[in-house]
Amino acid sequence: IPVEEFDLVIFGGTGDLARRKILPGLFRRYRSGQMPEGARIIGAARSDMSADEYRQMIAEAVAEFGGEESADKDGLDGFLRNLDYVPIDAKGTGGWDALAAKVRQDVVQAFYFSVAPSLFGDLAERLHTNRIANSESRIVVEKPFGRDLESARALNGTLAEHFDESQIYRIDHYLGKETVQNLMAVRFGNVLFEPLWNNHYLDHIQITVAETVGVGGRGAYYDKSGAMRDMVQNHLMQLLCLIAMEPPSKFGADAVRDEKLKVIRALEPVDSHHIVRGQYDESSDGPSYREDVENPRSFTESFIAMRCHISNWRWAGVPFYLRTGKRMKGRSSEIAVVFKDLGHSIFEGDEARHRNILAIRLQPNEGMDLQVTIKEPGPGGMRLVDVPLDMTFADALGDHEIEEADAYERLIMDVIRGNQTLFMRGDEVEAAWQWTDPLIAGWEARNDVPKHYEAGSAGPEDAMMLMHRDGRRWREIK
Ligand code: BG6
């Protein structure tokens, strides 16, 4: 279904994110027929180039990052006709008149701030003084949204001077992932799970986001952030919220975000014994973390594992184990909801030791499987085995029905539709930093040294111990 006609201005339109994600994503939406005739995308950046040169740049970006679909030359030509470019001086006056002349007032307007947060204020102000933005315009901002509570508050304050919260779309691209949205469908669209979704039936939850890539190329940014700021404060926190939140009264932006906020506010501070930070060593296929970031004395973590608790009736006593890291054994992200053992088993010995696990796979191979215990087929007597009830979406629905849509393109279409449900509200981001800040301050004050781990492994040994001490273990990273 096509969205309404729109003008989308991408500040930072020549940057990495625009070329890798935003424009190839928009091209796919164009090909799927979702971009209406007359929709326009206007790149705006410092470089002095013509609209034709910009189209050329984007054609190359789509060819490089757009996947198979970029082979469609006619489609690409059609898409490029919707593109325009304005050289702009974010801190000065250059280019603003030209932009004002191009952006229409009678269609949906969206302004994507794909620039350093230090420019947010300048852009927001100039959009108003040049009478480009209006009270209906939407603005899209990216992480990092601050690096602590104070800086996040300052950014929220800057944006609030010019835009109402209902106009601000803070992207966390994890919320655009298919499985993440499906999590809400599964929890709240079935009678099956919700009655069991509490401390009576669940033993613990594990959230793993493992990556095989290192930080090469982004060292300067990453070394100042680390896994906690780069991944936990935002992506893992959002996953945790969707798993743990109470059912919202409806699937609407504020109803959902109110419930997520309650989860973040109910998170207990994490004791230092329940946090393991790690840094990867060099290996045959790559340099060490310290070499990657060119800082031989770095104490920044490229891996973190922790045990969290949510202080409310539903989750009292159910630990949430989170872990994420770079240069790990596999690229595998999943949430495992591990059910309790049976209170009493009618079976004996090993046959009594089976448990249910709902594994929600974000990537690769998006889907869910529910581990259930059945009798091993055959004449061998009553022997029990665990088998997955597999709900791999591609198998269940047929490949053709799952559109190749990346998180970004889904979220951008939501911006045009004016649906904020999958975007973070200002108070959510601040609450997340409020929980994160003391943990970081804690290890800084202790001069905590990250544990080493072998690149290509499942992380430092201490992360295994974090679970073993509790009589549990991490699921294997495949
Ligand atoms: C980004 C982080 O937000 O998410 C990166 O800054 C990380 O460090 C990336 O690699 C992971 O995203 P995805 O979609 O590949 O899991």
From TrEMBL:
According to UniProt, the reaction catalysed is: D-glucose 6-phosphate + NADP(+) = 6-phospho-D-glucono-1,5-lactone + NADPH + H(+)
User: Where does this protein act, in terms of pathway?
Assistant: Carbohydrate degradation; pentose phosphate pathway; D-ribulose 5-phosphate from D-glucose 6-phosphate (oxidative stage): step 1/3
**What keywords are assigned to this protein?**
Carbohydrate metabolism, Glucose metabolism, NADP, Oxidoreductase
**Where would I find the Glucose-6-phosphate dehydrogenase C-terminal domain in this sequence?**
184-475
* Keyword Signal assigned: no
* Domain spans labelled Glucose-6-phosphate dehydrogenase NAD-binding: 9-182
Write one Gene Ontology MF term.
NADP binding
List ligand-binding residues for substrate. 173, 177, 211, 230, 326
Please indicate which superkingdom the organism of origin belongs to: Bacteria
Quote the protein name from its UniProt record: Glucose-6-phosphate 1-dehydrogenase
